[in-house]
Amino acid sequence: MTYATVHEPPPRPAAGPQTQPPLPGTGNRDNQGLSAMQIIQSGQAFQTDTHPEVACERHVLSIDDFNLFYGKTQALYSINMKVAAGKVTSLIGPSGCGKSTLLRSVNRLNDLIDGVRITGNMYLNGDPIYASNVDVIELRKRMGMVFQKSNPFPMSVFENVVFALRIDGESRRSVLEEVAERSLRAAALWDEVKDRLHSSALSLSGGQQQRLCIARAIAAEPEILLMDEPCSALDPIATGRIEELIHGLRGNYTVLIVTHNMQQAARVSDYTAFMYLGRLIEYGPTNSVFLNPHRRETEAYVTGRFG
Amino acid sequence: MIPIRDNLATSNTVTGTQAASPPRPSRCGPARSLYAQGEPMIWLIGGGLAVALLMIVGLLALVVYQGIATFWPVPVVRLETANGVVMGEVTRGEYFVPHTTTASPAEAEGAAAAAADQSTAVYRRLVRTGNFELTGTHFHWVAENVVRQESRPPWALTIERLQWGRFYGEPVKFLLDGREVASDAAAAWALFEEHFPTVADRRDRRRRLESRDIGHVNAEREAARLRVRTAELRHGAGSPEHQRELAREAQVLEQTDQQFARIRGEIQQLNADNERYKLVLLTAQGNEVVMPLDQIVRAYPANRLSFSDKLGIYFSRWWEYISDEPREANSEGGVFPAIFGTMLMTILMSLAVVPFGVLAALYLREYARAGPIVSAVRIAINNLAGVPSIVFGVFGLGFFSYTVGAYIDGGARNIQITPWPRSAWLAALGLTVAAAVAGPAIWFTLLRSVRQRAGVGRYLGLLVGLWVLAVVGLLLLLVSHNPYFDGLFQAKLPAPTFGTGGLIWASLTLALLTLPVVIVATEEALAAVPSSMREGAYACGASKWQTIRRIVMPRAMPGIMTGMILAMARGAGEVAPLMLVGAVKLAPELPGRIDRIPPYVHIESSFMHLGFHIYDLGFQSQNSEAAKPMVFTTTLLLIGLIIVLNMGAMLIRARLRRAFLGAQF
């Protein structure tokens, strides 16, 4: 496992409890002072700017020099990243930068696509994810995933939630019911569905379906919860409830969430990773990345100048 | 203040633009704009749809009209012509030109020569006169110009008989034990109505005794004979087992002889009881015919019926049609065996085709990697749908009946294959087992780890395919050259049991015919399952098979049922392949019956089929004029049957749709 190069903190203006954004040009501590775009276009490998606070946490997921190719095209370039345990980490970046691809690589859903090739590795609590003797099914059972468009199964609410346990062979009614109640409570859905656990899941509203998918994902107590833009198909009120939910999951669950809504990332996450053109540009605590970004591109993105 | 627009120039000035711009030239002419708006195409499409609907409705209306009217009781007319008297039911009429029409012996209008003008069209009627044993013909053509007098005799009876078809006559006497007890029509008819129900009951009982009970006794004797023959074949003539079976057979023959005698005695008693009642009828030609009551199936005075009487006869004829057996070479009686055969065959066919089709479609859609082999398989399936159905019949006959069936009957020798010597066969068996075991062994030890590497996948697929081919080929060789298997029905040879057409082979042949339909429909249904649902299942940690079983298959079930409905509809209506593999004009017994002769459940027996029945009525019937209306009635029945089957399947599909696609269970 290699650590990304640690940069010295950028020069701050003296005094004042309020930190000001670095003056243009002073935040880039690149090799030869080049911008990220110039490095990328010159074909050199890009070193992620990882804030030092990241290293202090216990890590659940460790992405190690990860590259992904769709046939001949490369989609992810040398990603190095560690996801902290019990915290919410968000991946932000403009469309097409590879954040969903990276997320799907964590639970090996990209294996379903023909022509995908990867180099490098990822480690879930020390166990390699991409190795020749890895059982993909067992690996996926240790993670949970929530998708952009809610996809409840055509079964009852109860069956949806306990699906992961049933396919594992668990059939004891008491265990299933207990798990279902716990997951639905954690997903803030219990009060609304406790009277109709056996009605079809398709009869719930959009926001309820998404919370049901979250309940399903956490039912098996996953080591990491992956969320791919969970609120993008929901109205603001449902979005707010899900953000509250995610906030409530902290501490018990590790969450890696992809979002292209920066304000959501700012509200919800503890750590933020900014990706651009398949590369991880900057990664650090949310406050730092948003208020005191090291790189000019990060600052340009979070202030809305592009994206 | 709003200026009034006088001309373009001032208005433009008001709005502040520069000089007035000329109006834009229109870019398309009036004709092109009409086409662009789509009106002609809408008319064309609507017209096409209307024509199609008209054709369907027209066909159904024709079938219903012709089929519904068949059983309605029609009045009997009596026509006095120059050549004699004709009495019967008028079935149809037409215009004809006398000279140009060939006269058949059945036409009683020879006096058409008396027509003054040789070339005018004359109206003639086809009268069903029955009385075949007296006149030699069932129908008579009567031209209008030769009719001298027409009447409707009040006591003319229409009689349907067990044999010889219909009879038309007037009752004159009723004979009880040979004595005349009624001398006029009304009294004779009253006595007839009094005694007929009991006579009919006794007759039905006698027929049941003849067919069922004697059939059982014969079956026991046949079973004994087969046991003797089997012992002889297995242990040799003169061996102790053979002697034992011979002794048993002798016992059985003795017992069955007693049973025969008893049943015959019963039958004789019933006949004797029925013989006492006879009705004497006068035909139109003046003959007196003595008719025993038990020959009569139904009789009614056609010109004295009220509407409710007619309705009663109509419904009783319909009931007879769907519940009784055929008589008179299928031109009379019922089609119950054909209905039963059609339904049983359709159900067996569905049971055979749906699992195979769904499994094949699952493999093609979910597991097979795109490549030349899969494309070839898809092309083959689509072409299979275009093969003429009679080719399937030939295949079914050649492969199922004459090869597989003959093998089941008599082993390898029965299909002209010399089995291998025992040692060689056992060696081949060992080889096959080794190959079968070696495949998975190699897979699980060596190849599994290689599988993860990209690019090796298609070679592995090829290897697996080769292994499967090798094992299956070896198995086929083993089975066909088996020296230990001498057939299950060796005792009955040379009479084939499975080696000829039968219900099971017909069902399998039609299953092959409808396989492409099921495969294509299932593939469409599987493709329609959204990938988000599959990904959700994978993300929960489900394996591929678990995803398919729990998520994909339930969601695709309505589409699969559509495929099944289409397959049933297609299969129930195919006739050509059935003619070669088991459908017959008259089957001695119902297929699928259970008794004590091997194979105990008679799926190998020949059967009757409604579609084949229609063909038989229309083309192979002796009495074609009487059979013609039955063609339409049978068609109506077949359409009704298919509608019922489809409705049932559609109901199930609607419920499945509601459960899996909608929001309620």
Identify the CATH homologous superfamily of the largest domain in chain A.
Answer: P-loop containing nucleotide triphosphate hydrolases
Oligomer class: heterodimer
Rg for CA atoms of chain A: 20 Å
* Second rung of CATH, namely the architecture of the domain at 336-416 and 498-632 in chain B: Orthogonal Bundle
> CA-to-CA gap between the ends of chain A?
32 Å
Mean pLDDT of chain A: 85
The CATH architecture of the largest domain in chain A: 3-Layer(aba) Sandwich
Q: Can you walk through the features of this model?
A:
The complex is a heterodimer of chains A (307) and B (665). Chain A has 307 residues and is an alpha/beta fold. Chain A is built from twelve helices and eleven strands. The longest helix of chain A has 14 residues, at 173-186. The two termini of chain A are 32 Å apart. Mean pLDDT of chain A is 85; it is low at 1-9 and 12-29. Chain B is of the alpha+beta class and 665 residues long. Among the domains of chain B are: 74-152, no CATH class; 172-279 and 291-296; 336-416 and 498-632, MetI-like fold; 420-447 and 456-481. The chains are: A alpha/beta (307), B alpha+beta (665).
Structure characteristics:
heterodimer; A: 307 residues; alpha/beta; Rossmann fold; 2 domains; seven-stranded mixed β-sheet; four-stranded antiparallel β-sheet; 12 helices; disordered N terminus; B: 665 residues; five-stranded antiparallel β-sheet
